[in-house]
């Protein structure tokens, strides 16, 4: 009996659970806070809201900025402030890939048959036609890729940002919604930013909207918006500060920004076919 009592007593013993540390509690709270969908805004929504309302929605204090741990959790949720660009293949490989078109392969076979049948005029004509079509397609694709490369160069590598009450210069790819960014003359805007402070701030948006004159910026909410030019309280990613200075809160980064939407459209857009290519498609 004594042995049984000891056995039951041993089994009834409950080991105390590990006490959660302060950092664990903070991490969980921040993760729950950052994972809520209602925190995120579109650039258009931010333009229609007051600056204080935007910062309350993004849960940031304009005097101290985000905590580094909070910023890192947000970055894990939405990714880096950059664009996904495919790795470039060698130029010769891109040219060779143009021959993978079934119609091109069929024409090559026809040219080969013409050679065997000693119909050299036909073989030369077919080969010249193939070379023209393939070269034109290659040039169009190459130019399209170069255009995308030029777009990515409009995004600055670094920016001035407020984190934990300290203004520092760090990589723009690490920006997240809620970051407080400082803008000065000559700066490229690193993300879509809802301005809450500005002194004679004018931004060159020609690379984005096509407007040649710098756009004067305000900090008050817009009553309504009708296109990008009407969002006068937003500094768009990739634009250039021409005059004055200002501060703002990041509302969208990377492919979620307005600039990112244009980038994705250009990636998805196919180069228009030449009349010769269209004729060959009809024949195929």
From TrEMBL:
The keyword Transmembrane helix applies. Transmembrane segments: none annotated. The keyword ATP-binding applies. One of its GO terms (molecular function) is ATP binding. It is a multi-pass membrane protein. Signal peptide: none annotated. Keywords: ATP-binding, Calcium, Calcium transport, Ion transport, Membrane, Nucleotide-binding, Sarcoplasmic reticulum, Translocase, Transmembrane, Transmembrane helix, Transport. InterPro entries: ATPase_P-typ_cation-transptr_N (IPR004014), ATPase_P-typ_TM_dom_sf (IPR023298), ATPase_P-typ_transduc_dom_A_sf (IPR008250), ATPase_P-type_domA (IPR059000). Coiled coil: none annotated. Its EC number is 7.2.2.10. It is an enzyme of class 7 (translocase). Pfam families: Cation_ATPase_N (PF00690), E1-E2_ATPase (PF00122). It is found in: Sarcoplasmic reticulum membrane. It catalyses: Ca(2+)(in) + ATP + H2O = Ca(2+)(out) + ADP + phosphate + H(+). Residues 45-119 form the Cation-transporting P-type ATPase N-terminal domain. It comes from the Eukaryota. One of its GO terms (cellular component) is sarcoplasmic reticulum membrane. PANTHER family: CALCIUM-TRANSPORTING ATPASE. This is P-type Ca(2+) transporter. It comes from Cacopsylla melanoneura.
